[in-house]
Amino acid sequence: MPNVVEARDLSLSYEKGHTVIEKANFNIRKGEFVFITGPSGSGKSTLLKSMYGSIKPTFGLLKVGELDLNTVSTSNLQELRTHLGIVFQDYKLVNEWTVAKNVALPLMIAGYSMDLQQTQVQRLLKHVKLGDYANRYPFELSGGEQQRVGVARALAKNPMMILADEPTGNLDDYSSNVIWDLLENACVQLQTTVVVVTHKIPMVFSLPYRHLILENKGVYEVH
Amino acid sequence: MKSIKNHLMFILPLVAILLGVQFFLIFERLANAYEEKLKNSYTILAVSENELTTKDFKAMNSNIASSTKVEKKEILKEISVGQTPEDVEEILKSLPNFYNIKLAKYLDTEDINKLKKQLIASGKVKKVETFEGSYTSNYKLFKFIKFILNLFILFMGIVSLFLVIKQMEVWGYIHRERMQVMEIFGAPLMLRSGILFRVAFLDAIVSTLIIVSVFLFFSYYGIDVGGIDIVEQNNKLLFLPFDGAILFSSALLMVIISVYSVVTSSKEKDI
């Protein structure tokens, strides 16, 4: 399988200049499910942000798809992001938009027609078991429901990779299991690469996965 | 209600800025009209031994637009009463040439004195007399009022600008999260700022329409300014069709700068 992410001697810093990852080497291949764990402040979220170009490497190479994120232009980065699905711990839904409009965001950006957007959104909301919630607003939903909307939005355009930052961090066990199921399904059924930053790998997880751990500024594979 | 308040928070300072722009345009036009009136009512009489043409006068000073020779017979009519034809003939021979001079533009007292000196210094003109009305003192007052008004416009503009900046902060607060989320999902700048641009564009149209309506009304129905004839005689100068374009362009420029500042300051780095 081809690499979706390739990191060579990758170093990352916070804005203050504090290095959190130093000379890390790893690959993530298409269709893999990867957990990234590590103690608080080890740079898990920073690493994930760097994969969608929100933070630039301070040293080394970081390629996502065919793009070197060190030298990527704004328009190419925008193009890359339309092929990524991003899930946040605090959902990052637009509160003044309905659930349907939130899910349709990646389709709207890609220039899909309204009809196509509606069909796709209905299918996705059914998939995340929120078929009747299209016209509700995010603030009317529970945390678990909001995160399902977040996953539906991430899946909207059949992304090449889903990047999830603590997707179950604010959820109870039941809601967490629903989210894990949805991410597993995306990986199995759509061959989407899924990278999840988490404190804790779920106890029950049926899919084979890779585990990268961040420690002492390095990225190590747990076998 | 909240939405109306948000619109008003941008419309009001924008109206104040456009009001300043319109006042500036009006006073520029009134000043030009006043200068034109002064220029036309200013009389300069030049006396010369030899015949001179307008070209000769223009060569002496470029601010001279034209010269008209005063017929000697007309002058004689006034001074030959009771004189014998021989005496009249004698007077006619000894009379110099008189010229009425018109100016190309309004000149202040200093420039008029300079013009007089230049005509005399040419050696072709013996004497120059000027007959100014009471306009000059009025004009000085008008200029002073214009200066005060421009200061007021500047002050009003600065205050309004601060209000616009305040509204930009409100916009940032309302729209930042949505724009940041859109940016993360790859939305280009125009798409991210689309909603904000539509809101601000609507405000620009409303603000322009308010100012245009007010000044169109004054322009058609007149304005009572307590006997200031330059305003009362030039009601049409209160609004010209081109003003609408200037006002809308100014409002649009404000909108583009404000929205672009909000959008560029709402980068995803805080997310």
The pLDDT mean of chain B sits at 84
How far apart are the first and last residues' alpha carbons of chain A, in Å? Answer: 19 Å
Count of all domains of chain B: 2
> What is the distance, rounded to the nearest whole angstrom, between the alpha carbons of the first and last residues of chain B?
30 Å
Strand content of chain A: 25-35%
Strands side by side in the biggest sheet of chain B:
2-3-1-4
Keywords (chain B): Cell cycle, Cell division, Membrane, Transmembrane, Transmembrane helix
Protein name (chain B): Cell division protein FtsX
Keywords (chain A): ATP-binding, Cell cycle, Cell division, Nucleotide-binding
GO molecular function (chain A): ATP binding; ATP hydrolysis activity; transmembrane transporter activity
Textual characterization of the structure:
The complex is a heterodimer of chains A (223) and B (271). Chain A has a domain at 94-158. Helices cover 32% and strands 27% of the residues of chain A. Chain A contains six helices and ten strands, in the order E-E-E-H-E-E-H-E-H-H-H-E-H-E-E-E. Chain A has helices at 44-51, 74-81, 99-109, 114-127, 143-155, 173-190; strands at residues 3-13, 19-29, 33-37, 59-64, 67-68, 84-87, 161-165, 193-197, 210-215, 218-222. In chain A, helix 3 (99-109) crosses helix 4 (114-127). The longest helix of chain A is centred in the C-terminal third of the chain and has 18 residues, at 173-190. The model of chain A has no long low-confidence stretch (mean pLDDT 92). By secondary structure, chain B is of the alpha+beta class. Chain B has two domains: 2-37 and 137-270, no CATH class; 43-131, 2-Layer Sandwich (Alpha-Beta Plaits). In chain B, 70% of the residues lie in helices and 10% in strands. Chain B is elongated and about 105 Å long. Chain B starts with a helix and ends in a 6-residue tail after the last helix. The model of chain B has no long low-confidence stretch (mean pLDDT 84). Chains A and B meet through helix 2 and helix 3 of A and helix 6 of B. Chain B: This is Cell division protein FtsX. Chain B: InterPro entries: FtsX (IPR004513). Chain B: One of its GO terms (cellular component) is cell division site.
